[in-house]
Every structure is written in C-alpha cells, then in structure tokens.
Amino acid sequence: MNVVVRRLVAFIAALVLAVEAVGIVIINVVMGTVVKNQDMSLAGTNPDVMSKGTWVLGGVSGLFLLLCAVILVLAGARDRAPGRVARVVLICCAVVHGVLGALTVGLVGWTAFAWMMVVLGLIVLALVAYGPEPEPKPEPEPESEQPAAPAPA
Questions:
Q1: What are the distances in angstroms from CA 38 to CA 47, 82, 127, 133, 134?
Q2: Cα 65 to Cα 76: distance, rounded to the nearest angstrom
Q3: Taking the C-alpha atoms of 59, 62, 63 and 65 in order, what is their torsion angle to the nearest 10 degrees?
Q4: With bands split at pLDDT 50, 70 and 90, how would you rate the model's confidence at 144?
C-alpha cells in the first residue's frame, strides 16, 4: 500500500476515534446525571453508585479510545507498524466496535450501526496497511556450466 494512503488512513482513524471518545464521555455524563436526578433504585442499587459508575465507565472508555487514537497517530507519523502491545490494543478496539455494532442495530438503529462499521473498517484497514510487508521472492540463481553426465549404459 502506498505510504500516503497508509498515513492518511491512520490519521483519519485517529481523528474518528478522538471524536468518538468525546462523544462517549458526553453520553455517559448525561446518562449518569439523568440517573442521579431521577433518584430511582434498580433492584435496591444506590442511585449515586449507579451514576458514579456511569461516569467512571465513560471516562475509562474515553481514555481507551484516546489511547487507540494516539497509537494510530504515532503509527502514521512514523510510518511504521505499531508494536505488539499496541496492535493488541487496536485489535481489542476493533473487536469491541464489531460487537457494539451488532448490538446497536436493534437498540439504536442502522445509522449507529453504519458508524460503528465505518470505525471498525478504519481500524482494520490501518492494521492491515501497517502489517508485515511480503518478502520479495528471491530470483533463481543461474546454474553453473558443468559438463553433462554421460548417459547410463
């Protein structure tokens, strides 16, 4: 794959993940605030614990997505494949997007599914673009000139 295309894919994927991180944090802050203001209990659970748990989940999810964005920015800036741990982080992010994309079809709708699949596609394309380069096939060595062996009698 061309160097320009690889870098462009990495930077676009990083930008999309950063925007998604901000969106996830905002959604979880809003949901946590709604739970806190409703002051309702779910099977005896304290509403304050539920709202704080939602805020923490939003923060951790946002940090994870920002980490993935930083990994992709570094890969694009250096034009080098991410290391082993960074690849595992990006693969985990891709798997989460695939699972959440499957869940969003029924819960949120096709637009959210399409968004999740676009992000999944960008992450996978960045991983594949910075995958191992195929080694060129060695050219066969010319055979040395040796006299032909006599035919068996």
A1: 8, 45, 43, 55, 58
A2: 17
A3: 160
A4: low
